[in-house]
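Customer ticket, subject: "Can you confirm the structure for Cupin?"

Message body: Hello, I'm evaluating your service for our small team and ran a test protein. I'd like someone to confirm that this is what the system normally returns, since I don't have a reference to compare against.
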Amino acid sequence: MSHSLLRAARMLASAAILATNLLTLPAAAHAQPAGVTRTDLQRHDLSAPGREAVQVRVDLAPGVAFGRHTHPGEEIIYVLAGAIEYDVEGKPPVTLKAGDVLFIPAGTVHAAKNVGTLPASELATYVVEKNKPLLTLVK
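Agent reply: Thanks for trying us out. I re-ran your input and got the following:
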């Protein structure tokens, strides 16, 4: 095989891998609104079959909201900084500040908004079913 054919084959293979990766990204990765940064920290299998623990840092710019969504398991929130209003279906909205915690049951529709004038952050810990999208947006 000539050098130019080998190089073309490598480029084609790289393009195919990139396209596959882009097409298989979770839907939530595409749906992230401006002003929201989700940083995956860790993901580990649990001793409970078919379950995993996932930790994510979520940063919200002032005034930014993350719309209504659900998770395929429980979410345990620890507010790291700022003031975040949580709207959990079936409960009145609550505003939490740094050091406050919140538990959201599996499948519960909820939303979050930074109601402060500074950036806000939370540590979200999920105990979820494996092989399901971590986040599903709700209309």
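A couple of notes from the result: The CA atoms of residues 51 and 129 lie 5 Å apart. The chain has two helices and ten strands. Feel free to reply with more questions.
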